[in-house]
Amino acid sequence: MLIVADENIPLLDSFFGDIGEIRRVSGRSMTASDVRDADALLVRSVTRVNRELLEGSRVRFVGTATIGTDHVDLPWLEGAGIRFSAAPGCNANSVAEYVLSVISLHAEKQGLEDWTNLSVGIVGVGNVGSELARKLERLGFEVRLCDPPRAELEESRQEPGENFVTLADTLQCDVVSLHTPLTRDGSHPTFHMIGQQELAELSAGQLLINAGRGEVIDSSALLERLAQGNSPTVALDVWEQEPRINPELVDRVWLATPHIAGYSLEGKVQGTEMIYQALSQFLGLPIRKKAGQFLPEPALSKLSFTSSADEEDAIRIALRACYDPRRDDARLRHAMDGAPAERGPAFDRLRRDYPVRRECSSVKIQLKGTSKSLQDSFRAIGFKLKI
Ligand SMILES: NC(=O)C1=CN([C@@H]2O[C@H](COP(=O)(O)OP(=O)(O)OC[C@H]3O[C@@H](n4cnc5c(N)ncnc54)[C@H](O)[C@@H]3O)[C@@H](O)[C@H]2O)C=CC1
Ligand SMILES: O=C(O)C(=O)[C@H](O)COP(=O)(O)O
């Protein structure tokens, strides 16, 4: 059995080595000739999986080690009888931690003494949005949720569900965080969902975060908005036309990262684990391996705080010890300084050579004499506590 896989999927040998022969190829430049004699294809988000890639091949199974599936022509795969599996939720916690770190930096920049005074609107309340909402609510933030597809579903089932609000209501919040998939059809398409009109609703003091897909924001409209007065602060992890992103937009936004919100080691390895499970099931093989067995000891495993610690400082220190988006921002800005033809490859290299980043759950926090509210905050973020 031949498995063709994106070389950037971690732990290929550990998970798939005893299932078949593995051929590693570049996900970005994968062609039909790379996959023609494969039985299974394993990809990440940078490979367009469609008729052009797969027609005439032996491929019977496609797995993507990602949450998003907008790079895959699902109707075509179904019509061709090819089994497909994604990795829903694999890196949801990683994205939620990215957003928390961004909000904490924003609160500090605003000189806020208590970051929970910010209201947060979440657009798209699936695996990522729900995980983020859970953490924020436990921390004490006011959170507004916008998810028309879920709202309609719950209404049609007459289920008591979340108290969803409209996009317009969400845009009134101090922070607006986008977590929808990229869709172009259906009753709630997200392509350019945030355009000129929506951007005009946002003003200085507000923070707009996009860690969903770049095309959810109309970037020409965003560039225009950022050139006007009273414009919002913007943090972008995802971009239109990756990897050849617009350097002018990078210049104009406050935080710019190269689509790495979901790049915790845990998130990536769980993605591999989920497609390993799906392929094993498809082939009728037992599932013997688990992500946890391949996760190394974290470089930072313990942090201590005593009663003298200021609560806001303690949370900031701990969050940023795990993940500080400013490092990724600096790397991306540096990559954009290169020659125009070099920028796309540089964007991809930042992602390929991404340093190991561990989630907050890998760090144990030792607390001596600290308040109950600080303990609750650490737990809400996902840290383990030793009191
Ligand atoms: N930046 C990064 O590294 C990552 C980005 N992502 C992106 O985040 C997206 C969301 O991930 P999950 O929460 O796991 O997906 P999910 O499928 O669990 O949830 C998406 C939610 O968005 C809602 N939605 C759809 N259209 C909407 C609209 N027009 N307005 C408001 N809500 C709408 C859906 O009803 C659903 O509840 C993924 O599709 C992917 O594109 C995911 C992981 C990492
Ligand atoms: O899971 C998703 O969806 C994502 O956006 C991934 O984090 C993207 O990572 P790559 O597949 O582009 O490495």
Radius of gyration: 21 Å
- What is the CATH topology assignment of the largest domain? Rossmann fold
Mean pLDDT: 97
CATH architecture title of the largest domain: 3-Layer(aba) Sandwich
Q: What order do the helices and strands follow?
A: EHEHEHEHEHEHEHHEHEHEHEHEHHHEHE
Task: Kindly describe this structure.
- The structure is a single chain.
- With 387 residues, the chain is an alpha/beta fold.
- The protein has three domains: 2-86 and 264-293, NAD(P)-binding Rossmann-like Domain (Rossmann fold, 3-Layer(aba) Sandwich); 91-256, NAD(P)-binding Rossmann-like Domain (Rossmann fold); 302-385, Ribosomal Protein S8, Chain: A, domain 1.
- It contains 16 helices and 14 strands.
- Strands 7-6-8-9-10-11 form a six-stranded parallel β-sheet. Strands 2-1-3-4-5 form a five-stranded parallel β-sheet.
- Helix 5 (92-109) crosses helix 6 (127-139), helix 6 (127-139) runs antiparallel to helix 16 and helix 13 packs parallel to helix 16.
- The longest helix has 19 residues, at 265-283.
- The model has no long low-confidence stretch (mean pLDDT 97).
- 1,4-dihydronicotinamide adenine dinucleotide binds next to helix 5, helix 6 and helix 7.
- Keywords: Cytoplasm, NAD, Oxidoreductase, Pyridoxine biosynthesis.
- This is Erythronate-4-phosphate dehydrogenase.
- It is found in: Cytoplasm.
- NAD(+) binds at residues 147, 180, 237, 262.
- Pathway: Cofactor biosynthesis; pyridoxine 5'-phosphate biosynthesis; pyridoxine 5'-phosphate from D-erythrose 4-phosphate: step 2/5.
